[in-house]
Design brief:
- 28% of the residues lie in helices and 26% in strands.
- It is of the alpha+beta class.
- The chain has a single domain, classed as Alpha-Beta Complex (Creatine Amidinohydrolase), CATH 3.90.230.10.
- The strands form 4 sheets. Strands 1, 8, 9, 10, 15 and 16 form a 6-stranded antiparallel sheet that branches. Strands 2, 3, 5 and 6 form a 4-stranded antiparallel sheet that branches. The protein has a 3-stranded antiparallel sheet with strand order 4-13-12, with no helix packed on it.
- Helix 1 (16-39) packs antiparallel against helix 2 (46-59) and helix 3 runs antiparallel to helix 4 (153-171).
Length: 267
């Protein structure tokens, strides 16, 4: 779940053992997203997917970190098409062929958090939508690669932004880069310092150190970057109705390089 822009304060440093505890939480999240992805087909409601997610998380002995968070009513955020983030699962939101579905999921296991998001193609989606999702995922991977000790926080931001711009040029279309929402520190809480912008000049912000953990999560649109929050107080949509994608991983910063904690298997 993305954080809104805020000031930097103290940053939690984890031990190797604590990273292992976060990895266990991350595996729960990865397995949950895999179960949701398998079930996400035309005719299935986003509420159905939420039920699958909660059952999977609780069966692992974990707790959904989104459910009840500042009043959020579900275990996943399910954002369809023009919805960027924080979409609320609903029985009336029935997936159709050609939809784009971004699923954000968090879990708490033994007091440690994992947080990850994927964008799923429902049935046969357009080539443009496939490219948008690929560009968003590539931006996330570029940000992860920049998460190394000695770098500055906005080196990640700049890597995300540069990757998105490179994809935009290669695809021959403008991608909107969401700036109001971004990544965040994570560990004993879901949203911790620092806020991680998805755009920015390099060499700014706190110096990255081994033991830090960040949720790196770019959001791109197929049009304008202007956003609107709906009356439900959660769902954020594109102002121009263009489609949006969201990809996220929880990443540990280590002396051996970035370690993604929300993959099904270590790579």
């Amino acid at each position: 779940m993305p954080s809104v822009l805020r000031r930097h304060r103290g940053i939690e440093i984890k031990s190797p053992g604590e990273f292992e505890a976060m990895r266990a939480a991350g595996i729960v999240v990865a397995r949950t997203l895999a179960a949701v992805a398998e079930a996400a087909k035309p005719g299935v409601s986003t509420a159905d997917l939420d039920e699958i997610a909660e059952e999977t998380i609780r069966a692992a002995g974990a707790v959904p970190s989104f459910k009840g968070y500042h009043g959020f009513p579900a275990s996943i955020c399910s954002s369809v098409n023009e919805q960027i983030v924080h979409g609320i699962p609903s029985k009336t939101a029935v997936l159709a062929d050609g939809d784009l579905l971004s699923v954000d999921c968090g879990a708490i296991l033994d007091g440690w958090h994992g947080d990850s998001a994927v964008t799923l193609a429902i049935g046969a989606v357009s080539a443009a939508d496939q490219a948008l999702s690929a560009a968003t995922r590539a931006a996330m991977l570029a940000g992860i690669e920049a998460a190394v000790p000695g770098a500055r926080l906005t080196d990640i931001s700049h890597a995300v932004q540069t990757s998105a711009e490179t994809s935009s040029a290669a695809d021959g279309r403008e991608y909107g880069q969401i700036v109001e929402y971004g990544g965040h520190g994570i560990g004993t809480e879901m949203h911790m310092e620092p806020f991680l912008p998805n755009v920015g000049k390099p060499g700014r912000g706190p110096k990255l150190k081994s033991g830090m953990a960040l949720a790196i999560e770019p959001m791109l649109t197929g049009g304008s970057a202007e956003t609107v929050e709906l009356e439900d107080g959660w769902t954020v949509v594109t102002a121009d109705g263009s489609r949006a994608c969201h990809w996220e991983h929880t990443v540990a910063i280590t002396d051996a390089g970035p370690r993604v904690l929300t993959l099904l298997e270590d790579v």
